[in-house]
Write a structure and sequence with these properties.
Distance between the termini: 54 Å
Number of strands: 3
Structural class: mainly alpha
Largest sheet: 3 strands, mixed
Helix content: 55-70%
Mean pLDDT: 85
Strand content: under 5%
Shape: globular
Length: 348
């Protein structure tokens, strides 16, 4: 993503998002770009017809799956996995309905102001180091999912696997950049994720080549749903419930105990080294970004359980992918039959 690119007199050109453009316009740094809806639509490489054809294929596949289920024909694990991904595709199609695809030429936004002037006038809110572009302070707002995602990406970066732009400022916004969603949209995303996981549970009584494979499929599908539930409650506790409880109890604990009255602890050098090392490890887990960006701090009470959830989810998802393939060696006979649509018409 990078539909608008800002050019200044003292900085490398970099992309800006909608909030940053609004900030620059309202403060008089740039003029409102003279661009129309038709100009935006003209940049789109994916037209309405292609999207309708894609939705038509999705709809036909879903109807076919329902027809097979109604006539008690076997549905393979691969078909079930495809149906699950359709849920994701429908959500993506809805969210990206008006998003131009494959833009190669950006709209250039020029300003006579320098980045130094913009940052100075912004004051304290622009005092922190930036992550993607110097205008991060305008629209950057980390939330639990973005913190988890950054932490996981940094784990891969530390072992030499790098995703996205390697330069700063970035020359484009990655599609994996997820801005905060809240309220009904957040609940909708959780609901779609639950439907995605539930589709795999629908294969609970499928015919598998062996009993062990059936049990593994059941375990994997339940694990995926359990990971979603665990993610929701861990995140709610670490980012919402625990801070509220701590803020409520902190004044009472302070009034009851005056910690200044406690004598200094007598600890050996070995114990101090262990404590110092433990704090260092905890800090590196809490924030594993290359620059030590304080905005990417994740509470240990959140990231440690999420690590465990992530390991279980990845193993479950990997087995389902393997099961989709190995099941093909021994499919039931009805898997090769087509739906007899005439049977759905009465008196025929």
């Amino acid at each position: 993503m990078g539909g608008f690119v800002l050019h200044t007199r003292d900085w490398t050109p970099f992309p800006i998002d909608a909030k940053q453009l609004h900030y620059l316009v309202t403060r008089g740094y740039v003029k409102f770009p003279m661009i129309t809806k038709r100009m935006i639509a003209d940049k789109n490489k994916v037209d309405v017809l292609l999207r309708l054809l894609t939705l038509g294929q999705i709809l036909w596949f879903v109807i076919n799956i329902c027809g097979r289920a109604a006539q008690q024909l076997a549905i393979t694990c691969g078909e079930l996995t495809t149906a699950a991904f359709i849920v994701c595709s429908v959500g993506t199609t809805f969210c990206w309905a008006r998003k131009p695809a494959d833009i190669e030429t950006s709209e250039i936004i020029e300003t006579n102001a320098t980045i130094a002037e913009i940052l100075l006038r912004a004051g304290d809110q622009a005092s922190q180091p930036y992550s993607r572009t110097p205008l991060d302070f305008v629209s950057r707002k980390e939330w639990p999912w973005s913190l988890y995602w950054s932490n996981w990406i940094n784990i891969l970066r530390n072992i030499g696997i790098v995703f996205g732009p390697r330069i700063r400022p970035v020359n484009r916004f990655e599609n994996t950049t997820c801005f905060e969603i809240s309220g009904r949209l957040y609940l909708l995303s959780i609901g779609l994720s639950a439907v995605y996981s539930a589709i795999f549970i629908a294969g609970w009584n499928y015919s598998f080549p062996t009993k062990i494979e059936q049990r593994l499929w059941r375990a994997a599908s339940v694990t995926m749903m359990g990971c979603l539930i665990a993610y929701y409650f861990i995140t709610k506790f670490a980012f919402t419930a625990y801070p509220a409880i701590r803020n409520f109890l902190a004044p009472q604990i302070t009034e009851k105990h005056d910690f200044r009255d406690f004598p200094p602890s007598r600890q050996g050098a070995g114990h101090k080294w262990i404590v110092r090392k433990a704090k260092s490890v905890a800090a590196s887990i809490r924030n594993n970004s290359v620059s030590g960006d304080p905005a990417l701090d994740v509470p240990l009470k959140a990231i440690l359980p999420i690590y465990v959830v992530g390991v279980f989810y990845c193993h479950a998802r990997t087995y389902i992918f393997i099961a989709d393939i190995i099941e093909l060696r021994a499919l039931p006979p009805s898997a090769f039959l087509n739906v007899d649509w005439w049977k759905f018409i009465p008196h025929l």
